[in-house]
Amino acid sequence: MKLITVAVLLAVFCYGVESFRLQKRDAEPTAPPSAWGNVVTDTLWDYWGKGTALASGWIEDVKSWKVDEKVRNLYTESATAIETYTGILKDQIYHSWNQQ
């Protein structure tokens, strides 16, 4: 789950950085250099808010798929099948060694 979250956040931030580059290239600076710090900070906080909101939405979408429940069910069914076949194999080995 942490890996998915990190990947989603990384993708969101990479997309935000690329769009920031495009905005920076297209726009002419209109504010004096002393005000640029506030503009950059506000822009970064805006991207951070959008990124976290988007990532939270994606996380909620993934939770709604109930992936963890499906994985748990798959594990339980697989463990049951393995236990059954292991028991059969154990009986076969026992009876082949102890023939009467």
From TrEMBL:
The keyword Flavoprotein does not apply. It comes from the Eukaryota. It is found in: Secreted. Keywords: Chylomicron, HDL, LDL, Lipid degradation, Lipid metabolism, Lipid transport, Secreted, Signal, Transport, VLDL. Coiled coil: none annotated. Residues 1-19 form the signal peptide. The keyword Secreted applies. Pfam families: Apo-CII. InterPro entries: Apo-CII (IPR008019), ApoC-II_dom_sf (IPR023121). Belongs to the apolipoprotein C2 family. Component of chylomicrons, very low-density lipoproteins (VLDL), low-density lipoproteins (LDL), and high-density lipoproteins (HDL) in plasma. Plays an important role in lipoprotein metabolism as an activator of lipoprotein lipase. This is Apolipoprotein C-II. It comes from Huso huso (Beluga). The lineage of its organism: Eukaryota, Metazoa, Chordata, Craniata, Vertebrata.
